[in-house]
Amino acid sequence: MHHEPTPELQMCIDQCSNCHDVCLRDATTHCLEMGGEHARPEHIKLMLDCAQICQTAADFMLRGSPRHTLLCETCAQICEACAEDCERIGDMTECIEACRACADSCREMAHLESSR
Questions:
Q1: How does pLDDT run across 74-84, given as a tens digit for each residue?
Q2: Which of the following CATH numbers is that of domain 17-114: 3.40.50.1010, 1.20.1270.360, 3.40.640.10, 3.60.21.10?
Q3: First to last CA, the chain
């Protein structure tokens, strides 16, 4: 039996997918090309962690896992950390916006589902 995701769930999946794409792209192109603080191993690792947790959270939601709220809560924390680090470094507006939007959506999803 196929179940369509709720609008809130679909929005969260979309935000996670977007954040994954932006973080992966920026880490492997923009940051490495910029060098300096942008290419610090800790920063690159955080961006790749963010991309990976976003993809994993989206996968959990897409397959209707009842444990997606656990991933969403973790995803929100990592996205927020990534946004803060990108903001500190500067010249990363798209990544900051994608991470914050994903963090907000995941936080909402984790709380929405846990209150049901």
A1: 999 999 999 99
A2: 1.20.1270.360
A3: 22
